[in-house]
User: Which sequence fits this backbone?
C-alpha cells in the first residue's frame, strides 16, 4: 500500500500543480521520485506533526491541495487538536495519510500501534474516513480524497499486503465494493483485513456457509444503502477490522443499527479488544494474539451463528 500511495501521489501531482506533500520525517527514499519531479512541492516537516497539520491548513486556505503523511498514531493521535481545529473546524481540503494502520508496526511496540485512530477521526465533523483494502484501493482512495472540498483521512497498511483487485473496481466514497456474493452471512471488512475476510470466507465455504464479502473502505460516511440491504436480507452481519471494536467500523455499524431497530439481523464485531498489546512481535503475531486469523475469524462467525440459531 505504501508504495502504491507514493506512486499515485506522484501521478496526481504531475496532473495537478496544486498537490503538495508534507512528510513527518519519514519516507525520504520512498518519495525520491516525487522530489525529483516536484521538488518545490515536497516539505519534510520533521518530528513536528502538530505543526505539519497547521502548515497544511494554511496551504489549503491558499488554494493548494496538501497531503500530510507519516506513521498513523503520529499523524492522528499526536496532533488530534490541530486536525480538529485547523482542518475540520475550517473544513479545508487536506488529506491526512496514516501509514502502518492497526498493527502493521506491531514489532515497534504500543507507541506505534493504532487501534483507536478511526474512532478519533470519525467523530470529527466534516471529516471523511477512508480505509482502503489493498494497493489498488489505496490509489483510488487517494484520487477520490483529493477531489473533496473538505478534510479526509486515509489509513493504509505498510508494505507487502496482498493485492486483492486484479483490475481497478468502481470506487466511490461512501459506497462499498462487493468482492464475493453469499446468502448466509454478510462480512464487512475495512482496511488491511480484506485478504483476511476473503480467507475466512473460504474456510466457512468449505463448511457449507455462504459468505458475502464487502470491502467497506469508507467508514465515514457509511454506505447506508448497503447496510440496509445486508441487515434486511440476512440473519447475520459481521464487521472485521484491525482496530478496536470500540469506535471503529464495528462501532459505526452498531450505531447505525441502533438508529434502525426495524432490521433484525445479528451484528458481530471482530477487531481488537479494549486492551493494549504488551508483547512485541511482528504483525502476524499480534493478529494471532487478538484472534485475527482466518481460522479464528471463521470459528467466531460459526459459533455466533450457532448461538443465534439456538435462540427461541
Assistant:
Amino acid at each position: 500500500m505504501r508504495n502504491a500511495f507514493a506512486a499515485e501521489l506522484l501521478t496526481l501531482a504531475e496532473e495537478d500543480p496544486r498537490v503538495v506533500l508534507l512528510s513527518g520525517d519519514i519516507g525520504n527514499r520512498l518519495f525520491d521520485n516525487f522530489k525529483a519531479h516536484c521538488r518545490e512541492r515536497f516539505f519534510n516537516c520533521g518530528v513536528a506533526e502538530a505543526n505539519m497539520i497547521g502548515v497544511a491548513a494554511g496551504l489549503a486556505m491558499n488554494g493548494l491541495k496538501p497531503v500530510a503523511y507519516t506513521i498513523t498514531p503520529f499523524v492522528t493521535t499526536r496532533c488530534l487538536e490541530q486536525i480538529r481545529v485547523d482542518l475540520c473546524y475550517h473544513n479545508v481540503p487536506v488529506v491526512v495519510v496514516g501509514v502502518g494502520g492497526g498493527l502493521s508496526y506491531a514489532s515497534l511496540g504500543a507507541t506505534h500501534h493504532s487501534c483507536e485512530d478511526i474512532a478519533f477521526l470519525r467523530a470529527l465533523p466534516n471529516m471523511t474516513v477512508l480505509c482502503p483494502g489493498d494497493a489498488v484501493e489505496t490509489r483510488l482512495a487517494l484520487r477520490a480524497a483529493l477531489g473533496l472540498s473538505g478534510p479526509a483521512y486515509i489509513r493504509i497498511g505498510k508494505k507487502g499486503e496482498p493485492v486483492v483487485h486484479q483490475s481497478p473496481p468502481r470506487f466511490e466514497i461512501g459506497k462499498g465494493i462487493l468482492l464475493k456474493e453469499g446468502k448466509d452471512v454478510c462480512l464487512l471488512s475495512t482496511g488491511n483485513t480484506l485478504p483476511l475476510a476473503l480467507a475466512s470466507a473460504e474456510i466457512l465455504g468449505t463448511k457449507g456457509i455462504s459468505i458475502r464479502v464487502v470491502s467497506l473502505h469508507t467508514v465515514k460516511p457509511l454506505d447506508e444503502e448497503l447496510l440496509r440491504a445486508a441487515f434486511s436480507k440476512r440473519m447475520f452481519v459481521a464487521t472485521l477490522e484491525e482496530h478496536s471494536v470500540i469506535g471503529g467500523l464495528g462501532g459505526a455499524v452498531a450505531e447505525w443499527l441502533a438508529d434502525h431497530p426495524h432490521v433484525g439481523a445479528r451484528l458481530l464485531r471482530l477487531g481488537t479488544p479494549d486492551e493494549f498489546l504488551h508483547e512485541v512481535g511482528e504483525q502476524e503475531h499480534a493478529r494471532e494474539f487478538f484472534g485475527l486469523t482466518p481460522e479464528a475469524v471463521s470459528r467466531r462467525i460459526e459459533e455466533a451463528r450457532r448461538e443465534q440459531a439456538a435462540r427461541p
Remarks:
- The first helix runs from residue 2 to 15.
- The mean pLDDT is 95.
